[in-house]
Amino acid sequence: MENLSDMTIEKFQKLFTGFTKAYGTFEINKSNNDKKKKGRALTVRKKINFEHYKKHLYGEQGIGVVPIKDDNHNIVFCALDIDDYNLPQEDLLKRINESKIPFLTCLSKSGGYHLYLFFVEDTSAQLIQKPLRKIAKYLGYPNCEIFPKQEKRLKPRNGETEQIGNWINLPYFSGNNSTRTCVQLEKHLELEDFLHHAEKSKVSLSQLIKLSNEIQLDENLDENTSFNKLLKSEGRNSYLFKYGCSLRKRGIEDIEISKKNKN
After folding, report:
1. 104-148 pLDDT, tens per residue?
2. Interior/surface letters 147-168, b for 16+ CB within 10 angstroms, e for the rest
3. Domain encompassing residue 86
4. What is the percentage of the chain residues whose pLDDT exceeds 70?
5. Could you tell me if 193 and 257 lie in one domain?
6. Which of 45, 75, 98, 198 has its CA 20 to 30 A from that of 21?
7. Domain co-membership, 75 together with 185
């Protein structure tokens, strides 16, 4: 594996900064048809530091991070966790592009997708929940997991140990040799390209709320219907016809609708 500069590792650490007093890891035993990985998830109650991120990127020990920072309020990144192993990747990426939300879509450890969003500054873990849930519904996964899963950690009571919260496995385990890379319509991004795109795509809370407010929810998607299920049940042509109708209601010209469906 190629050597990574300390600056590259530090950039990765800064992007995925969260709770520093504990971290997660996952010991893989075996896989099920190369999809959902089998193993043991562990929470380690020790401080996470530069060396942990370095070992992750070098493929020595994967780590997961709790997004809510030590102040128990703010985050600098969040993610949608889509565990749909039969989802056509191209369809998901096109749907994300249509949403105009600057997600960086990474393959997850289990074979699904983690849709990461990064913030320009510390941002309330509570205030991102509503816009993210609307965006998840727009993408066709209204019930997907959102990280952070908590708005804040509960305070320990009666001698309990400090609450940690849920952690998410980070991408680029083993660097550019990883199976957890960021995917775009044309290619997979190498680590340096991912870091560059992540920095450029950062948003503020107000920008996220504005983008989510501009989204018009597809009336064909309900709380229990995923995008992939809808494609299967109605057929691609039927879905695209209804999708085109919803765009027309939003005032989009027919020629633009034709381009979107072809793309």
Report:
1. 999 998 889 999 999 999 999 999 999 999 999 999 999 999 999
2. bbbbebbeeeeeeeeebbbbbb
3. 6-215
4. 77
5. no
6. 198
7. yes
| Residue 242 backbone class (left: φ over 0; alpha: ψ -120 to 50; beta: rest) | alpha
Q: Which two tokens stand for residue 116?
A: 């990461």
What is the spatial distance between Cα 235 and Cα 133, in angstroms, rounded to a whole number? 26
- Residue 70: CATH number of its domain: 3.90.920
pLDDT of 237 higher than 90: no
Sheet (strand 145-147) strand order: 145-147, 74-82, 113-124, 104-107, 182-183, 188-189
**1 in a structural domain:** no
Q: Note the maximum CA span of the chain.
A: 65
Residues 64 and 191 in one domain: yes
Residue 44: its pLDDT value, please?
96
DSSP 197-243: HHHHT-B-HHHHHHHHHHPPPPTT--TT--HHHHHHHH-HHHHHHHH
**Structural domain tally of the chain?**
2
Global pTM reads: 0.81
Same domain for 158 and 85: yes
- State the pLDDT at residue 234: 47
Whether residues 211 and 114 fall in one domain: yes
Structure tokens at 17: 């900064």
Q: Do 138 and 12 lie in a common domain? A: yes
Would 75 be classed as within a structural domain? Answer: yes
Looking at residue 164, the DSSP 8-state letter turns out to be -
Query: What CA–CA distances, in Å, run from 76 to 21, 32, 121?
Result: 16, 33, 6
